[in-house]
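Final report, Chapter 2: Outcomes

The project's central promise was a pipeline that accepts a single protein chain and returns its three-dimensional structure in a standardized token representation, suitable for archiving and comparison. That pipeline is now operational. To close this chapter, we reproduce one record exactly as it appears in the project archive, with the input sequence first and the structure output second.
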Amino acid sequence: MLTKAPVEIRTSPHLKKAQTVEDIMRNVVYALLPICAYAVWQFGISALALILVSVASCVGTEAFFARLQGKGSTVSDWSVTITGILLALTLPPGFPLWMAAVAGVVAVGLGKMLFGGIGYNVMNPALIGRAFVQAAFPVAITTWTPAFAPGRFTEFIPSTLTLPFMQPPPVADWIAGLQLDAFTGATPLAIQKFDHVEAGTLDLFMGSVPGSAGETSALLILLCGLYLAVRRMLDWRIPLAVFAGALAVAMPLWLANPAIYPSPGFVLFSGGLMLGAVFMATDMVASPVTPLGVIVYGLLIGAVTVVIRLFGGLNEGVMYAILLANALSPLISGWTQPRVFGARRQGRWFARKPEGR
């Protein structure tokens, strides 16, 4: 006797993509590799060591916590590798390696595993680690070295191999030995903020200026982000909204007083705005899920970044802008929920009530 198999009814969505978390994360790593390669080309073996130590610290920390909690290893999903790479790319190329290891432990332990691992983190883990070392090691995090220095492939930047809790050797002496008269030890953001002198837009776009290891070439970051957007592994609306938010604040100020306030091109291509908008603000876990929400979220990041840069005590504001937006992400998603057909919004929290006759 033939019998029909029981019908299993499930909730939507019923159409699912074949992509897995591992596929998406692995492709993000692929997209970050050209940026890592350019960082090594620009800053030498110190940048390579920084990336390797940061990734190893993050991977080791996740493996330790997974074992401590009695869970299977989650290292193979590539998410912790992304955290390590992004963390390294936000640090100065001569950042002491032991400090980078500490940043990796904090990023994964405090920013990810404390909340339950992948899919549960409230904020971007890499930025949690970066924020910690900015507070703990303010001098090291603001010590910059020149790009394309001679001998960068044969010797480390002196501060790279500093032993834990030891005073790093003066980087200024090393720079003086390179006979680079044009290097002032400041980033384009600092020079513009305090001296009102802008670096060339083309130099910023192509990546021939000092800065954090992976934030210098806006062109390369955009191309790598475009790869992910074309493969639908990145929500392109978020970076565009970030850029729009930054321009909405910067453009009127520049038009009012171009002698003091930076040009729109400088705002977009300087500092970590590109790297943050393309690879950090787009974190699938910490960003909103509604169509309108991602726009509001991106606009907030761009606007807050420029406000901090121009009116705050820091040269850069991308990190704090993204962390703030991450914290507000659940509220943004709640406030921007699309209205259900046949329902009306009531009150501040958009409570839904069916319409009756």
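Archive annotation: Strands lie at 343-346, 351-354.
This record, like all others produced under the grant, will remain available to the consortium after the project formally closes.
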